[in-house]
């Protein structure tokens, strides 16, 4: 029997599902609202495509936090090493960077995407661009299946196209619609409502790997917008990591902030603010700083004293003036403590659209182990639209690829049941 499967969303998750199905000679149609595929994947490649990470598997899976159990199952069947091997088979060599992160040799996503789409095309996958999925045909009647014309076992979905509304039927559908960040690249999160209307439990999409607002004084904002803050240790709750970030007009952003962003976001949600602690001289002990700062200042300004004695200047000194009272700056003990543990209040995450990825999405409780929606037999989900999050470091793409495989294989099991 010639089965047909519709995959909606041509990002890493949807394309991986298309690969699994086309290898088994299933008729696969990939639909995407944009005029080209994999836009977010291509954007990820702009700053150096971090495909995956080379750390031990145990450490790797710990990055998925409270979703580790579910995602570990996907990754057992498609490990970070399998992903590298898969890329190699596409002719894309990879290398491990100094941080252990894995990148394609060319750093970009476009060469990989180009050969991958060619291979899928040769395997018979058909692509339908500018097809925006807008829900199920019969969801108002409480169903997603075709009704009353002999096609009752097929899923019936509709698209907005340049030629008007189009409806299609398929034996199974895989939704791989992405999260809700960078909507201009195609994943706008509009699907949340359509799935909720069909009775699926979806957690609200929230920014993940995001920056935060800080109530900078106009003086600080004007002087330091765009300045990097390097070699600091950020502590917040259980998080403690050395790295760097950037001061923005609105607040802070960058790799170190992204890494702590899930914890910070959740704390702000509960308490209205989150106070991070910054060690601005992680290579110097409290005692060393205290001794140097205790030297008589004479007629020197505080800025010149800080620079001459402990080498603190520019934006780091600016942060001290921003958050430490004049009185405390004059106390060597309090000044030393502030350099080692500067408290910076973060008041809100930046909007979802600016985030690298999103948290929230279709809950795991709504899905079976094959990623089929329990309430909507024949409809599967994969990728960032599921309710999990991970830091940057290749963890996002690895899990998206792996979930696409699980959904593809899930459809195969469903079709031959
Ligand atoms: C700037 C940036 C840098 C990144 N860098 C990295 C990195 O280096 N490493 C890493 O691991 N991750 C990175 N990511 C994250 C990674 O790109 C995403 O997690 C990944 O692309 C998600 O894959 P996906 O297939 O689930 O969804 P997406 O890639 O978002 O694809 C979803 C597709 O669905 C389509 N779609 C959505 N709604 C509809 C609809 N209603 N009808 C039809 N089509 C629809 C979209 O057009 C899109 O093509 C980065 C993200 C950004 C924004």
Which SSEs are present, and which pair or pack?
Blueprint: E1 4-8, H1 12-23, E2 27-31, H2 39-44, E3 52-53, H3 57-62, H4 68-77, H5 80-89, E4 94-96, E5 101-104, H6 110-122, E6 126-128, E7 132-136, E8 155-161, E9 164-170, E10 172-175, H7 191-197, E11 202-208, E12 212-213, H8 218-224, E13 228-236, E14 239-247, E15 251-253, H9 255-271, E16 274-279, H10 286-293, H11 302-310, H12 314-323, H13 326-329, H14 332-340, E17 342-346, E18 348-349, E19 357-362, E20 379-381, H15 395-415
Helix pairs in contact: 1-15, 4-15, 10-14
Residues 8-14, 31-34, 39-41, 43-44, 49-50, 132-133, 176-178, 181-182, 186-187, 190-191, 356-357, 383-384, 392, 394, 396-397, 400 line the site of flavin-adenine dinucleotide.
Placed side by side, the strands forming the largest sheet appear as 17-16-13-14-15-12-18
Overall SS class: alpha+beta
Rg over CA atoms, rounded to whole Å, is: 25 Å
Shape label: elongated
> So how many helices?
15
- Total beta-strand segments: 20
Which properties best describe this structure?
single chain, 417 residues, alpha+beta, 7-stranded antiparallel β-sheet, 5-stranded parallel β-sheet, 20 strands, elongated, binds flavin-adenine dinucleotide
Give a description of the structure.
With 417 residues, the protein is an alpha+beta fold. Helices cover 36% and strands 23% of the residues. It contains 15 helices and 20 strands. It has helices at residues 12-23, 39-44, 57-62, 68-77, 80-89, 110-122, 191-197, 218-224, 255-271, 286-293, 302-310, 314-323, 326-329, 332-340, 395-415, and strands spanning 4-8, 27-31, 52-53, 94-96, 101-104, 126-128, 132-136, 155-161, 164-170, 172-175, 202-208, 212-213, 228-236, 239-247, 251-253, 274-279, 342-346, 348-349, 357-362, 379-381. The strands form five sheets. The chain has a seven-stranded antiparallel sheet with strand order 17-16-13-14-15-12-18. Strands 6-2-1-10-20 form a five-stranded parallel sheet, covered by helices on one side. A three-stranded antiparallel sheet has the order 3-5-4. The mean pLDDT is 95. Flavin-adenine dinucleotide is lined by residues 8-14, 31-34, 39-41, 43-44, 49-50, 132-133, 176-178, 181-182, 186-187, 190-191, 356-357, 383-384, 392, 394, 396-397, 400.
